[in-house]
Amino acid sequence: MPLYEYQCNTCGKDFERIVRFSEADLTPCCPSCGYQDTSKKISAAASFGSSSAGPSISSSSSCAPGGRFT
Ligand SMILES: [Zn+2]
Fold first, then answer.
1. What DSSP assignment string belongs to 24-58?
2. Residue 29 CB partners (closer than 8 Å, separation 6+)
3. For residue 66, how far is its CA from the centre of ligand 1 (angstroms)?
4. Which of 6, 11, 28, 63 has fewest C-beta within 10 Å?
């Protein structure tokens, strides 16, 4: 069963809820204030498949100071 994130529009509470497919269109009540004015967040957990491993840090010190006093 998918886990959805919701946010309460009344008190701003974030909460997660496991929702069955038959209940996916229902709006759950806020566990904090009890109002049903909640909105489902878009869960992007399934779309993080191919993440490139960050920026490659090139540690070539090409701009070394050339001022050398002898
Ligand atoms: Zn609430």
1. TTS-PPPTTT--S-EEEPPP-GGG-----------
2. 35, 36, 38
3. 63
4. 63
